[in-house]
Amino acid sequence: MEADAAALTSVAEQVAAEAAELVRNARESMLAGREVAVDTKTSATDVVTAVDRESEQFIRGRLAELRPGEPVLGEEEGGRAGDAVTWVVDPIDGTVNFLYGIPEFAVSVAAQIGGVSVAGAVVEPVSGRRWTATRGAGSWLDGRPLRVSRPERLELSLLATGFAYQAERRARQAQLVAGLLGHVRDIRRPGSAALDLCAVAAGWTDAYFEHGLQRWDWAAGALIAAEAGAVVSLPGEDPELGLDGTLAASPAIADALRAAAITCGAGGV
To answer: What pTM does this model have?
Structure first.
């Protein structure tokens, strides 16, 4: 399995890097004045650009060439997971950042078997950073092995989070964050779930917690965090954190963060 998973990681990295180049070129064109069509999805604030769609179509085409016959589940065109290898794709994670010119966004490509991520890559178009992981073999940033941080206690930890696009839920999330602020050093909201998970893997933050992620948001990033030593809870695995809560944290503070989140109302978000 490990050898097969390593091959899948290589494909994920190759395709994500090629798609990231497409996205980077599109960004440069936008900065030079190109107008890009923008639509909305679940709400007026939940946007999708023509570049998201171009990126996903490119990824699907490359995977069809490199891994013919394997199903693809993507954010923009959907799909259905199979029992064998399924590719889970987010063509631009952090679309709002991309749209506003903020360089915090990425292309995420993961391979799952039976719904479990076994290989993944997250590539940043602007910086060129490549985050990769193979199940059971570790995770890396540009080839350098990753390990999570070891904060002394929860009060000295840096937490990342994000918010949903529906106003009512954002209000509940704001209440949760307000409660958690009293338990941690500080809270960040960069705007890309995939990169938030990668940041935990690198020790740039100590933990990440968010509700409402879809499979393509976490498929690669959660594997990268877990392979770096993070305690990871995915949507549906811990109802006390909410039915769609995602948590990735250094083992040093994972239990304390979970308890604080539950106390602050995570289960009702």
So the answer is: 0.94
What residue type is 119 in one-letter code?
A
Q: 189-192 long-range contacts, Cβ below 8 Å, gap at least 24?
A: 189/160, 189/161, 189/162, 189/163, 190/94, 190/97, 190/104, 190/160, 191/94, 191/96, 191/97, 191/102, 191/104, 191/105, 191/162, 192/93, 192/94, 192/97, 192/104, 192/105, 192/106
Helices 2-31 & 50-66 angle (0-180, nearest 10) = 150
> Cα separation of 70 and 55, whole Å?
18
Q: Is 65 helix (H, G, I), strand (E, B) or coil?
A: helix
How many Å apart are CA 265 and CA 269, to the nearest integer?
Answer: 7
**pLDDT at 115 exceeding the cut of 90:** yes
Query: Quick check: helix, strand or coil at residue 133?
Result: strand
